Amino acid sequence: MPDHPISPAASSDTPSEAPAGTAVTPGTATAPPAAAPPHYDLLLLGATVLSGVAGEAPVVDAALGIVGQRLAYVGPAAALPREAKARVTRRLDGRLIVPGYVNVHTHTILSMVRGVAEDLGFAPAYTPGIPHGHDVRPDEAIALARLGAMEAMLFGSTLINDSYVHADLTLGAMADLGLRVYACGRLHDVDFSGVADGRWEHHVAIGERTLREALDLADRWHGTADGRTGVQLAVHAPDTCSDAFLKTITAAAHTRDLGVATHLAQSRTEVAQVLRRSGMTPAQLLDDVGLLDSRLVAAHCLFLDDDDIRRVGAAGITVAHIPKGNATGGTMAPTPRLRAAGARIALGTDNMHGDMTEVMRWALAIARIQLGGVDAAWQPADALAMATGHGAAAMGREHDLGRLAPGWLADLVVFDFRRAHLTPHPNPLGTLVHTGMGRDVEMVVVDGGIVVDDGLPTRCDARQVIEAGHHAARQLWKRAQA
């Protein structure tokens, strides 16, 4: 099985190293620097720019100058020094540029149950008769993971946080496409072959194996590829991990200084199983074992009682909000109450699709349904923050990702706003959130390199990736139905 090594970050458009003397400080204002670099590697002109910084107005007819991996200028094109030059200049009149989306919760391989899982009423791992993680072969995992990662990237995700199976093979295979990838195999000590039939049998050997594989993955990939890859320990769920195993994971996370991601209160079955086994709610259990803290990224958070909401809010966890996926199953996370309690809300696509623009729209609508109307605290700017800055903070990258400002890493998405459903756009952000789609993405830049151009990936053959993923899914379904 090939290792799929990561391709070099540089392309013909974007060199990998910045010229000497052009370093800038992360977090500086978006106003032009006092002495702009005389030469940019990539200069984008003419678009409207949303910086992602709270309260900042859009910059119309903007310029973004990139040197190496970082933004060196963000501001009006008219304020660029006349002597400014660039190796590559792109005119982007009629486009909108936003920070790259940070998708904090996805399972790329689960595209194999797309169009089926949505109508099951239950998570795929708990449902008999469909392909499961333990059925996926290594070559199938690589093909499906690349398909899901490419979809997410084409729709504007510049960082994905993925978990499922064969992560030792899929992480590099996905990162080879050019986007940032955090990944981990799911941690559990339950025998998943029995869960779909209602049996939760925990085995020490299974837990030891899954944790060892995750830590080996972190040794190999965390912080490599110029910071494009990383690992958050992916605890599957409180019901599929015994109390003792959860404590072991806590110790490992603290020792290795790794973040933790999990599913939390994603089903009534999970809540009932943990209550029977441990005498606590899932949130209480995570608190008891030491996992409930500001570094936890917890997906769904659907079935929380009042005490649970206060508890997770006080801990400052990040809720990986999956609004469309949850609504498809007839549920919704109490995001207004969670945020009021102190939780951070970030966004993920889970396993249905990779369109974070659509997820922003659903997140806004789900909150307003619960509030009973339009609220000043739930506006398009809040949705964009959930998809960008909040996600970056959830991944421990709030210092260099999630905004467009000098000194920050050049991760950005260009939308073609010349299309009928995006015209007119007196409020570009409102238009993006309410009527935009992932299919409107024209260009994606990661680490200063163009990884999507004219709607197509630059570092792979899209048709080959699609065909390989389709073939892998067909084989999995044949075996499951047999």
TrEMBL record:
Region (Disordered): 1-32
This protein's record includes keyword Hydrolase: yes
InterPro entries noted in UniProt: Amidohydro-rel, Metal-dep_hydrolase_composite, Metal_Hydrolase, MTA/SAH_deaminase
Amidohydrolase-related domain ranges (all copies): 97-451
Alphabetical keyword list: Hydrolase
Residue ranges, compositional bias (Low complexity): 18-32
UniProt record similarity statement: Belongs to the metallo-dependent hydrolases superfamily. ATZ/TRZ family.
Name of this chain's protein: Amidohydrolase family protein
Organism: Robbsia betulipollinis
High-level lineage: Bacteria, Pseudomonadati, Pseudomonadota, Betaproteobacteria, Burkholderiales
